[in-house]
Specification:
The chain has 13 helices and 13 strands. With 366 residues, the protein is of the alpha/beta class. It folds into 2 domains: 2-162 and 346-362, Glycogen Phosphorylase B (Rossmann fold, 3-Layer(aba) Sandwich); 176-333, Rossmann fold. Helix 5 (138-147) links the parallel strand 6 and strand 7.
Length: 366
């Protein structure tokens, strides 16, 4: 098979990681892998692993992006992919419009993946237009069924995202070198019970709730807020720092900033949290923490709720119920809870199920 995946850029993020994982797997299985994007720092890795990158500005929400439609049509004719796999809305629209202009016999098959619980409307409806629509969780499928009732439910397929258990092994311990460097930078964390909230610094991620929970726990509990702040979110970051001071938590909270060693931080943590105010489409960091053996307390909605239900039901708590979450944290910190992760949420399952879906589309009609 020849598969063309399309996304805005190749810099960082879950969509980008999933694209590279799929591309590498396709090559390993003897298929031709192409990726269309505006480029980015991950292109070198993509090409090193055997895929072909096609660079085109499909990332800008601008009327000028419509100029790319004839270019995309030409690329589809030149490369003749069997399947075009669209992973984002803007390039999805550009490719869809190019695809519609092609004679039916020349069109590749057409798959979309819904990576997020997007705002509902005509712009987002492009994600429902594939011949098959991959939903990264049951929460995503329910979202599409509820808000796009005209979508044929037979083409919606839940293929959960997954992780490689070899990279997130249960009981993993960071190296001594890493620990030495960590404690040199963050000496205030040594000898403490570490409670970690991973995720970018944005109001949706529940930092206020995290600080409220921490304020109800003993002084030997130290909070780690792990994530960077976009320049537009600097005011919110300062708001959280000010809240930390007002709650007398300055000595009990560390803002680490952006980190590339989240696996090690999660493995070092006694407890991790997922407190997003709006449901997550999946919740990969929740799964990563659980796979490492670190318990997670998360709001029981969206993809995080799905993961907890399967891997660690004891960690699910109703959204916004701070006292309940704090009580749950106290209980978990005093016990050795049983965690069954990653369960079915395996990278190999995600990749093989996607390949099977591609093959299904390419089967001749009987």
């Amino acid at each position: 098979m020849k598969i063309l995946q399309v996304l805005p850029e190749l810099n960082s993020g879950g969509v980008e990681r999933g694209t590279l994982e799929m591309a590498k797997y396709l090559v390993s299985q003897g298929h031709d892998s192409l990726v269309l994007s505006n480029g980015g720092r991950l292109v070198e890795k993509l090409e090193r692993e055997g895929s072909t990158h096609l660079r085109l500005a499909v990332h800008k929400k601008s009327p000028f992006s419509l100029r790319q439609i004839p270019v995309i049509k030409r690329l589809l004719r030149d490369h003749r992919p069997d399947i075009i796999h669209l992973r984002s809305r803007l390039p999805g629209w550009l490719c869809h419009l190019a695809w519609k202009q092609m004679p039916t016999r020349e069109r590749p098959h057409y798959v979309t993946t819904v990576h997020g619980l997007h705002s509902v409307g005509f712009y987002s409806s492009i994600i429902t237009r594939g011949e098959r629509v991959i939903c990264v969780s049951k929460a995503v499928k329910d979202h599409l069924t509820r808000h796009y009732p005209d979508t044929d439910p037979r083409k919606l397929r839940v293929i959960h995202r997954g992780i490689d258990p070899d990279h997130y092994p249960a009981g993993y311990h960071p190296s001594n070198d890493w620990l030495r460097t960590w404690y040199e930078k963050f000496p205030e964390t040594k000898g403490k019970k570490l409670l970690t909230l991973p995720g970018r610094i944005t109001r949706l991620k529940g930092h206020r709730d995290f600080l409220e929970i921490l304020s109800q726990l003993p002084d030997d509990c130290h909070g780690l807020i792990v994530g960077g702040a976009h320049p537009k979110k600097r005011a919110y970051l300062q708001e959280m720092r000010d809240l930390t001071k007002r709650k007398n938590l300055t000595d009990r909270v560390t803002f680490t900033g952006e980190r590339s060693d989240l696996r090690e931080i999660l493995a070092l943590s006694n407890l991790a949290f997922s407190l997003s105010g709006t449901p997550e489409s999946f919740g990969r960091t929740t799964l990563e923490a659980l796979a490492l053996g670190t318990p997670v307390i998360g709001y029981d909605h969206g993809g995080v709720g799905e993961i907890l239900k399967v891997c660690f039901p004891a960690g699910a708590t109703p959204k916004g119920q701070i006292e309940n979450a704090a009580s749950l944290a106290s209980q978990i910190l005093l016990s050795s809870p049983t965690i069954d992760a990653p369960g079915p949420f395996l990278l190999e399952n995600m990749l093989s199920q996607t390949i099977a879906l591609y093959r299904e589309l390419l089967q001749p009609e009987s």
